[in-house]
């Protein structure tokens, strides 16, 4: 309100502000309000001339761009974590495979190793889904993530 008061008192000739307007239907309309002071020949304030420029679409695009950047950052983070986890998981699966090869299927630990291997394979599939998401090609695969949790 300070700028509006300064304009009304003739201290400034112009001001600009971003403002949210509410339409009759309740929707928000974003606008830039430009207000100009019109003076007479002696420099006394006569009236104001105001214009409003609708920037609603620009605001929507800015919001969409922000969300896209946010999703890109989440994808990069997910990809980095998935890559690191995949390296660890490869060792777990590899050692489970080696152990399964070394022991008899009658050994009581054999079933535990099979479960470790099976869970590792499911986790590896889940990581592949995360990597697809992080590369932005999550729509290419229609598999549901929940399918990897079935035992």
Quaternary organisation of the protein chains: single chain
Q: Uncertain runs with pLDDT below 50, 5 residues or more?
A: 138-151
First and last CA, distance: 65 Å
Mean pLDDT figure: 86
- Sketch the major β-sheet: 3 strands, antiparallel
Radius of gyration: 32 Å
Shape: rod-shaped
By DSSP, the count of extended strands is 3
Helix content: 40-55%
* Count of folded domains: 2
Q: Strand pairing plus helix content: what structural class?
A: alpha+beta
Describe the structure.
By secondary structure, this protein is α+β, with helices and mostly antiparallel strands. It folds into 2 domains: 2-54, Complement Module, domain 1; 61-140. Helix content is 54%, strand content 21%. The protein is built from 3 helices and 3 strands; from the N terminus they run αβββαα. The protein has helices spanning 2-8, 56-102, 108-134; strands spanning 14-22, 28-39, 45-54. It has a 3-stranded antiparallel β-sheet with strand order 1-2-3, sandwiched between helices. Strand 2 and strand 3 form a beta hairpin. Helix 2 packs antiparallel against helix 3 (108-134). The longest helix is centred in the middle third of the chain and has 47 residues, at 56-102. The chain is rod-shaped, with a radius of gyration of 32 Å.
